[in-house]
Amino acid sequence: MTEAPRPSLAGLRRGDALPPFTLHISSADVAAYLEATGERCALWSTLVPPLALGAFALAGLMERVELPAGILHTGQEHEFRRPLAHDEPVEVGVEVGARSERGGAVVLALDGVWRAGGEEVGTSRTTVLVPPPGEARG
Amino acid sequence: MSAERTTAGAPEVAPVARHLDQPRVDRYAAAARDPNPIHRDSREALASQFGRPIAHGMLVLALVSEGMTAAFGERWATGGTLRVRWRAPAVPPVTVTARARARGVADGVATYDVSCEAEGGEVLLTGTATVPLG
Predict the structure, then answer these.
(1) Which CATH number fits the domain that encloses residue B37?
(2) What pTM does this model have?
(3) What is the pLDDT of residue A138?
């Protein structure tokens, strides 16, 4: 079976939505995240740090689009409604909330909604800048 | 959890400082499943506008979230908000300090100006965070 081609991030338009995906963040995932960030907090022995959920959702997004060379992550917003338990499945939906172009550079705001157990547990807005093709050195 | 209150009426949030070196950035890339080569010793990182690997913005931002968690515990994950812009990349090895300065309290919600600075004083990130005081 051939995998469907991933859409180019820079080619997405306002209102475009990616197919939702589900994350299962295990205790081992949380432990590796905390070891990498250096945070130590007993709270996270059973719960997922909210920014870890943001990071894993962002990784899920990156797996589903073609990242242009030189892309820069310029801004991040979150609203945390409730923490997830380890291994609790969470569905991530992402759509393009805003798109603008200036001088060939594209700025995209990607809005994420996280749902678990039938309720919204958090939201995100990730802003990225895609430089003009001739200036992408990354 | 800190019980100290600032003059703005909001709880104090202690700064969080951490040394970000390339091994930590590599561990973060693996843990957060971030494949972007700009964060590792790669041709792409050398060819980028920064000329060397840079730390993940989300790794820098994690220090802000750590400080808010230390001050507010589960309340941070149950009603907290965060809105930031990155101003400059963190180039490892670098010690980064995250701070949250209370701006005020309104309708039971504390607002903080948050920032991360490199050891030389360069501002890496600025923004705001809010937490319900419940």
Answers:
(1) 3.10.129.10
(2) 0.94
(3) 41
